[in-house]
Design a protein that fits this description.
By secondary structure, the protein is an alpha/beta fold. It has helices spanning about 1-15, 20-25, 30-45, 60-85, 105-115, 130-140, 185, 200-210, 225-230, 245-250, 280-300; strands spanning about 50, 55, 90-95, 120-125, 145, 155-160, 165-170, 190-195, 215-220, 235-240, 255-260, 270-275.
Length: about 300
Amino acid sequence: MHAAILRYFSVVARSGSIRKASEELHVATSALSRQIQKLEDELDTPLFERLPKGLRLTRAGEAVLEHADRTLQDFEVLRGELGALKGVKSGQVRIACLDSLLVNFLPNQIRAFNRAHPGVDYRVQSGAHSRITAMVADGDADFGITFNVSHPDDTQLIHDIAMPLKAMVAKDHPLARLPAVTLSECAQYNLLLQLDTEPIRSLIEVELSVLHRSGRNFVTSNHIMLLRQMIRFGLGVAFYTPIGLVEELDAGEIVGVPLKGTRLGSLRLGLLVPKRRQMTHAASAMVEQLGGALAELEAAVG
């Protein structure tokens, strides 16, 4: 019961809203509100400021949130240790990753891990690099899968592999015949750009901004599935790593042309893990499996 109340409090604190927290927790707003009030009554202090646009933690609430995070993490570690005593891995693995990893890579890895450890559950959230690093640093994710760009000092990137952005075009696109292309050459065609991929999107836009180009940002979207179809239809040039387009690349429907003369061609992808926070047995085992899978992926798409 104690863990449940702390979990409710943690979700409310991060969402800043009883309504948003109730949707995430699948708990009625009235019941959730009563639990928060009960916790405040037990501690004899307000934990939130009730504002017109939501809730904001008081100083006491910030202290309780730190306690809640430590307690919930310790509880998950304990669950894993108890499972290990029985010879099984159990509990929940919380993963934050790039959108492109949800197409093929991570579903296949979860399927393989589930075969070996059927007692483990998963909580997977995708987002931009900045969101992934924040989730790992704040303890909202056990680990992340992202690029080797800036990340908090209390996290580190391990098992990283070369995973450069390439110009992704249809098999009959004029650029598909070239061994490598510059951004200037890509910018002569319609561009297909993905939103919410900071800081990669900014790197692309900064480098494109200095070019005189006749093309245009034909389609921008926050979802790779739409842009993948636009590439296949030959409607423009997109910038992706091969990881989210493995099937189309293998089938020859899409061609990944290496980029030259740009920092975008030297990106690396890896597992972002906390330096000082202990991971559960299940999360550690998942990290080990994913490290091997990334090495295999590098060999396959290199």
